[in-house]
Protein 1
Amino acid sequence: MTETPETITAAVLAIGDEILSGRTRDTNTGYIATFLTNLGIDLKEARTVADDEEAIVEAVNALRSRYTYVFTTGGIGPTHDDITADAMARAFGVGIDHDPRAVAMLKERFPDTELTEGRMRMARIPDGADLIANKLSKAPGFRLGNVHVMAGVPSIMQAMMDEIAPTLRTGVVMLSESIRADAKEGDIAVPLRDVQKAFPEVAIGSYPFSDEKGFNTNVVVRSRDEARLAEAAEAVRVMLAELKR
Amino acid sequence: MTETPETITAAVLAIGDEILSGRTRDTNTGYIATFLTNLGIDLKEARTVADDEEAIVEAVNALRSRYTYVFTTGGIGPTHDDITADAMARAFGVGIDHDPRAVAMLKERFPDTELTEGRMRMARIPDGADLIANKLSKAPGFRLGNVHVMAGVPSIMQAMMDEIAPTLRTGVVMLSESIRADAKEGDIAVPLRDVQKAFPEVAIGSYPFSDEKGFNTNVVVRSRDEARLAEAAEAVRVMLAELKR
């Protein structure tokens, strides 16, 4: 028996009416999913809620108690519909006020005449939070407990993830191999299930797709153990070759 | 006082490890968001969970009790990792078995020799469910209570939404107008908040973006009342024009 390595889990919470109305396509969650996979952190759940304090509070409290890390996107700008910071303070039961460190960051970008009441809203940070630097437009995100609060603009969110990454505990990276079956999913289902039974500790997924030649399937084999991954992938390839004989 | 029209709400539940690993980008949720907005149905929440029965059961039970409709995508194919139908049966506390109507649909497509044990899995339907026709590849989705269970392949999901649409109660369509501010969000935040205060029943959202000219903002005004929408949008335009003088 080898020791089971620690599993590090995460959830993403996207905040914004514009995603739920369909006006804006959420590309942030997919970006974060790939980013975390590359760090060996398992993204277990993603949620999107509206710009609604009650909904944000309830979602973040559900997720932060369940997963190692939570990453939120959206709702930390200067306008009246940016309510994420206040919602986080309420979720954690802490106060919120203009943070001198955040004000100093904004002053790097804006002369006093441009530091409007709206922009000063972006310096409202819940008590006890660490700031997350924003190299693009200065207004910071923040970390409160295990929750990382980031901007919704993709370029800014991505820069913030780069700031956060070195602070995260990381796991053993999940390795994967994708095998194009050149067969319909229904034709490989039973033999694939048997391969899965033979390799219970390897995750074998089956993903149908269609192209100009019709329905086809990608089989994805995933494991943190390189040798077991290779064995299971080979078993899938042998199974597929036998089907075609 | 005009009568408040009925609000019809919805949630989307995307099911699949491949979305959470970042391997597959979820385009279904955005498609459904736009589809529902066009029907006057308010999408209030979206979740993504893994191919994990416990996680699916918990999510669907949380969502179905809260919203008028739930739409799920993914996990109804023929392979061992397709567990959505069984999870739905468990969530509703009903049995599940091969459904003669679903078997008949599969037989339209597959000769008996190709109706493998795997493909027959796609005819497993929870007791009491109505089927959702699949014009593309026959294997049906189903409706159980207020939950609509659809395929994850986008083309099939979209065909299923077309089947479902006529069965849904629809609301008054939310109208919207998008106004490009040609200003930074921080410069319009305070006057925009004042416009929002003047039109409390109209939703005014502010969405920063950046292009080659730098940071900019789209203001989106949303209402189900055409006249109020026009008044609020005009107030935003007047405010923006005054800022530029």
Protein 2
Amino acid sequence: MVNRFELAKQELVATPALVVDLPTVERNLQRLHSYADQHGLKVRPHTKTHKSRRFARMQVEHGSVGLTVAKLGEAEVMGQESSDILIAYPAIDPDRRRRVAELARTHTVRVAVDSQYGVSVLAAAAEAAGTTIGILVDLNIGFPRTGVPTPAAALELAQQVVQAGKHLRLDGILIYPGHVWAPADQQEEILTQIDQKLAETIELWQAHGLSVDIVSGGSTPTAFQSHFVRSLTEIRPGTNIFNDMNTVRAGFCELDDCAAAVIATVVSTAVPGKCVIDAGNKTLTSDRNVLQPDSGHGHVVEYPQARIIRLSEEHGEIDFSGCDQTPQLGERVTIIPNHICPCVNLQDQFYLQTPEGIEKLNVDARGLLA
Amino acid sequence: MVNRFELAKQELVATPALVVDLPTVERNLQRLHSYADQHGLKVRPHTKTHKSRRFARMQVEHGSVGLTVAKLGEAEVMGQESSDILIAYPAIDPDRRRRVAELARTHTVRVAVDSQYGVSVLAAAAEAAGTTIGILVDLNIGFPRTGVPTPAAALELAQQVVQAGKHLRLDGILIYPGHVWAPADQQEEILTQIDQKLAETIELWQAHGLSVDIVSGGSTPTAFQSHFVRSLTEIRPGTNIFNDMNTVRAGFCELDDCAAAVIATVVSTAVPGKCVIDAGNKTLTSDRNVLQPDSGHGHVVEYPQARIIRLSEEHGEIDFSGCDQTPQLGERVTIIPNHICPCVNLQDQFYLQTPEGIEKLNVDARGLLA
């Protein structure tokens, strides 16, 4: 197998370092937008994966209608690349709601809300700022994290949005199918159930004179099966731009679709049968693989049979007992992480690999927790 | 129970935020230095826990003989607070060994080494810089990560250090008892075995005319049992300055000895029996508790029966089914993390709580992976 990260592996001054291969990013974006176009779906990608203005700009250039974020710090950064920002998060505490209302001065801003409290405080914040905030009612469709439980509860919250007055605008419904990690060919049944719950909710809203302009769904695992949820108007995949061992091991993409990798150096081989690299959980995170938690903390491209068995903060211990060869001290290896989003958040920069060479890029929205 | 983080909880503008209570830090440092003084041990604390010049300065003021780091970026930051830096890491790749040799121009610098390759390349780097690097031979005493396996192998490496010439200085032996997570009263047997292996190694070195000036050991779990390893001259605890739920649940300290906590806000209560806070694994890390992996992702001070059952990047889901009361939307809660070191690495700043008020402090060495 050709290691697409070979150039960066040769040229990097210091390790560990996160490399992103630009041609692979381009291919991933093209594939997503081609699917979305085919099914009449808009794309509003979640930028939590890359946290970077440069990749956000690429997404907009590929036809994304806006950008999705979780926290307000991210909203303010991504607002520099798009005038249309969805905060797919209950941004209802005093600091966030004030910043949402401020951002709405210059941007189309929408917030996912799942409480009457949220509706009230966002309305008050928008009134204080003299702005208008779009509201998507967060409907729980099976992933029990946020979201109102039933079509009736969604209707009640939607009516409260309308009653809250002119500083809120009822825009539609948001879902997050975070529980759908089945292989693509087994998703149809779960997605059809989601489709039914959404259809029931929309029918109820319409029967009460409420329109549903946006039905926002999707995630990377469900991205290419979004057409099974017929009422969706848009999808919000995040990981898709880079992919990782979670999406590979779940069968959503191939190893060659992984655009991001950590280059690390072997710094110890003193313990027989293993070696230690200079990337621990401060570089790769402690996240286990979602579907194969015992598969190790990432994939070693040069030694596919190797297993990253334990991470300390700065040490990654790799078991080479299944390999014909073992790396030498000082050798560099290429790791595809289990979960690329929090891994990106641990780096101050990307090393962008382009046909012209290696370029350094800031992770602009890294660590913006508020 | 009084919540020692109440002041910050009231006064913080935005959440999630990492608060450190200064009086608790002072007490933790006093306790450690009092134990060390009593047993004639020097303290060379590992600064990976706090990654901050201010706390490093406090450690030096309490009598630490130097500071310990893993990576070179940390060494360069902590070198501003102490002239004596131990790099307890195989810093042998081209970038690190060059920076080690440079730092040795102005500082007493020591590196833990476990390979002949490491000895050779560090000698060459020091020669190129015209400096001298101190070497501690890393001896594996049961935690199979780094370290030469036997007293004989340690002797062989020590002899290679001497033979490498005047740019290396053989300073002694380093151990890391990373496997010792037994309760304090059960550690004696394991530590006595370590004591024997060290005694054998030292005897062998001395029989070959090599002196052992430094025997560097310790970690937070073993810190207060260090006297069972009689040959130690110094200890390197890290977590001890702040403590966390790992040290609490292992019985190494009390909840009241935890100096650092994350203040978070409840942002959703839509799913019955649980609530969602605005701190996920981007704030708390995914690290499970070492001894009680099913105890949840940290301790909720205000609701001791609550359990943080799942973390997404920006959502922390808390199960309140065991509690008499549940928090309200918008309420703030105080979380003691499982593992404070990587949690600190996720924050750009601390909010330092002092008798005078809240002070903002940079995490100076955050994210310095190289």
Protein 3
Amino acid sequence: MKRKIFLETEIQNKEFLEIEDKKIQHRIKKVYKLKPGDTIFFVGNDLYEGIYVLIDPSTWKFKRVECYKRSLLPPREVNLFLSFIRKNNFELILEKASELGVKRVIPLITERSSWSTTEVSKRWEKILHSSLEVSEWGYLPEIGTPIKVKDLPQNCFILEKDGEVLDVKNIKDPINIVVGPEGGFSDKEKKIFEEKDCKIISLGKITLKTETAIFVILSLLNFPLK
Amino acid sequence: MKRKIFLETEIQNKEFLEIEDKKIQHRIKKVYKLKPGDTIFFVGNDLYEGIYVLIDPSTWKFKRVECYKRSLLPPREVNLFLSFIRKNNFELILEKASELGVKRVIPLITERSSWSTTEVSKRWEKILHSSLEVSEWGYLPEIGTPIKVKDLPQNCFILEKDGEVLDVKNIKDPINIVVGPEGGFSDKEKKIFEEKDCKIISLGKITLKTETAIFVILSLLNFPLK
């Protein structure tokens, strides 16, 4: 595994980088144990990625060796409207959805969610972005402000157990996937889906856990086989 | 979510069930809080599933209401030769691979694995089987005895970053997928793959974490879209 760290800053025009974030300093010193002359990859939030050499550990100063723009994009533009489900699963989904090429995750406040917030957590963004240390996507996945079901766009695809199989080739981007909470949507929410011309889709007859269903749908959309 | 428990016993011919496993007793009493007259689903290791009513909490005795054989099978027969990777990821993969319709997981002892064992752990089997409480597959996923790279079958598919895209339609079952440890395979192991006519396959240009790559490949094989 390459030593690679995502930085919440632009790096394109910087020949030198001084790392100020304490957690990243910790990774450099304690995890990667870099010594002067050692190299590391940095990825900036401008999607530039470069090889840098540590020149001064006392000021955490690195010098650029080379730098290039990432260019790989997922084949489809997928927005995930994700209900507030159990916290550890919610965060696992953020991590994996980012690896699997989701464009945007918008937390969804539903009647039966066991928890919710109207604020965007810095932690969520961090989880989405740190996946870029592994994957090489050339875009920054986004986290949206949490919205209510009534604020969903028209023509979403509601991922449920009983629905039509998604006809991938005949739908246009962006693909808005909606995933409900553990207890499902309420009748009132289902009525809103009808008003918004949403379509119930499913992945076949098998019931999957929420997080697993999301892994499958993103795999199918963004990793087409022959 | 239905109340459903997997039992490591056959249930087809049993009109009455008495639950002796302490952990299952705990779930019945403390998690589901069943009272006499309440119903629950049990799934047996013979893949029969039934609705049962609690008739005597003091002896954990249930009476069958109805019972049927599960019949849903994944479209492909996939064996996963899984290297010993970080334990929590290893177990996450067992859970999700079972949901995603893997037929058999065979732990693989490699030179660069950070840990390994030659024994099959009861815990692994339990993880594989408890996924059946959610999914409705009509087969029992198996865990094999750990093997070494030299004992792999011929014609496996080695999942790597740089390889051919898997031509799903033109390969025959069983599909033997091999996944390496975090540090990759050694040169000696790569030579064995050549001798065994194994093919290096990949999921595109994106690097995925080991567990994520497995979710993707199983999704693509067992959950075909239109």
